[in-house]
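Contributing: when you submit paired examples, paste them exactly as shown. First protein:
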Amino acid sequence: MADKNKSWSRREFMKIAGVAGVGAVVSPVEHFAGAIDRSVSIVSGRQQVPKRPFGRTGVEVSSLALGGTVNFLSNQLLLRQALKMGVTCWDTSRNYIGGKSEKGIGKYFSRFPQDRAKVFLITKSGHSDPDNLTQHLYDSLQRMKTAYIDLFLIQAVSEVHKELTKAIQAWAEKAKTEGKIRYFGFSTHKKMEKCLSDGAKLGWIDGIMATYNYRLMHTDAMKKAVDACVGAGVGLIAMKTQASLVSNLFSDIGRETDAALRLNQQFIAKGFTTEQAKLKSVWENPSIASICSHMPSMKLLQANAAAASDKSALSSDDKRLMQRYARQTSAGYCTGCAEICERTIADAAPVGDILRYLMYYNSYGDQLEAIRCFNALPADIRRRIAQIDFSEAEKHCPQRMPLARLMREAVAVMPSESGYRLSPG
C-alpha cells in the first residue's frame, strides 16, 4: 500500500495513456496531445513524479523537468499543476519566448513565494564572457523574482576547452560564493559525447544538460561519456529525448515503415504511447537524473508525469523495435556530429544548428523560436546557406541526410529579417 501511495496506479496510468493514435510517432507535440484526451483534474497529493540524485551535489531533482520554451506569463496554471505533480525541476533561458518564460516564472513566484524553495530552477546564458554572464544572471534573477538560481548553464556549448575557460571557472566560483547560483554547468546539442567527456575532466562542472535519447544512448562513445560524468560526480539532464525528425520531408517514413506501425501497436497494447516509451527508455538509465521535456499543455504534462511514475519496464522486444525504427528513419535525424559535415564545407556554415532550428519548426511546432534562432545567425550565412555546395558533406554524413535540400527548406520556411526567402527545391 505504501508503494501505491508514492506513484500513480497502473489503472490511472492507462486511463491517461491508453488512447494513442498510430500517427503519434511522427510529431511528439501535436499527435501526442491529440492522442491523450482526458481530464487534467486527476492530480492528488499522492501522485508525485519520483526524484533522483543530481550528481555529487547531494540534491535530488524530479526525474521529469518542465522545459521552459513556453509563455508562462499566460500559462500560470501549468506551473501550478507541475508543482502539484512533483515536477519540481524547471528549466528556462533568458532567450525563451523573448523573455516571457523567465518573466512568467517570476510572476508565479510573486504570487506563490513559498513555492520557490520547492523548485530546482535552471536558466542559461549563451555567452562565455564573464561580464555578459554577470549581466545575464542579474537579468534572470530580476525577471524570475528570485535571489538565486539553482543551476546556471552556459547554453549550447560545442567546444568545452574553448568556451569554459579559467575566467568562467572564476566567475562561477564567485557567483556561488555570493549566493547567486548554487551549481554551474553547460548544455550541449552537438558533439555531445566529446563535450560530456571533456566536461567531466574539468573537475568544476556540477551539471550538464545534453541531447540524449533512444537513438544516441546505445553507442559506445555515449556510454563512455556518460560513465565519465558519473565517475566525476556530474549531474546529467537529458533533453531532445523524443529524437524528433528534422523535417516533414521524412513524415512518410515515420508513418509508414513496418517498424513505426509495430512500435505504435505494441505500446498501445501495453497502455502507453510511443512518446511515453521514448521517455521511459531514457529513465531506464539510472545515471540520468532528469528528462527536460517541452510540455506546453496540460495534456502533455499529465501524460509525461504518468510515464515518469509508472514502474513498468520496456521489454527487450520493445527496445529492438525502437532501434529498428531508428535505423529506418536515420536520414531524418541529426545525431549532433556536426564536425564531420561542417569540416567538409569550404564556407563556414553551422549545419548542425540550422538542422536543430528546422526540427523546432517542423517537429516541435515552435515556429517563433525556430525563426528567432535562425535570425540570430550572421546575415551573410543566412543569405548564402542555400547556395553552398553540400555534396561532400552529404557523402560524409553518417546518417546520409540530404543536407542541401534541408538547408533550402530552412531558408524557405524560416524567413530572414531582411525578407530573404527561397522556394524549396
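Second protein:
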Amino acid sequence: MPTYEYKCKKCDESHEQVHGMTAKPGKCPHCGSTRLEKQLFPGQFALKGGGWESDGYRSSGVDKKAEKRFKDATGE
C-alpha cells in the first residue's frame, strides 16, 4: 500500500499514513482533527539505458554531432 503525507490544517503538523489509493485519510495523530491536506511531492524516476545525458553516459556520437552543429552555427 502507498504511503501518503498529510498536513493538518488545524495544528499545522505533518504526518504519514499508509492506506489504499481510494481510502480517505484518518485523523491527525497530534490533535485528532480530520481537516487534513495531502502533500504533493515530485515523483522519483531514473533514466535507464545508454545515452542519457543526466547520468553522464552520453554516447560519443552525440557529442560529435553536437560539436559539428556548434562549429557550423558559430563559423569556427
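If you have annotations for the second protein, write them as plain sentences, like these:
The mean pLDDT is 80.
The two ends are 57 Å apart (CA to CA).
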